[in-house]
Design a protein that fits this description.
Elements: H1 3-7, H2 11-34, H3 41-65
C-alpha cells in the first residue's frame, strides 16, 4: 500500500488497517516459528506498513488538536 492511499484514509479506516496488519504480522510470526514461512522478508514489509499507518494516524490526531 502506498503512502498516498494511506493518507487518504479516515482515522477509523487507519485504525482498522492497523488492526488488520497486526493480525497479519502475528500470523507471519506463527508461520516463521513453525517453519512454514516462505518469504521472511514479508515480516519486515508488514512491520513497515504498520509504522506508516501509525505515523499517518498520529499526524491526523495532532492536526485535529489544532
Amino acid at each position: 500500500m502506498n503512502l498516498e492511499k494511506i493518507r487518504n484514509m479516515s482515522q477509523a479506516e487507519l485504525a482498522a488497517e492497523e488492526l488488520k496488519l497486526k493480525k497479519e504480522l502475528f500470523n507471519l510470526r506463527f508461520q516463521h516459528a513453525t517453519g512454514q514461512l516462505d518469504n521472511p522478508g514479508k515480516m519486515k514489509e508488514v512491520k513497515r506498513e504498520i509504522a506508516r499507518v501509525k505515523t499517518v494516524l498520529r499526524e491526523k490526531q495532532l492536526k485535529a488538536q489544532d
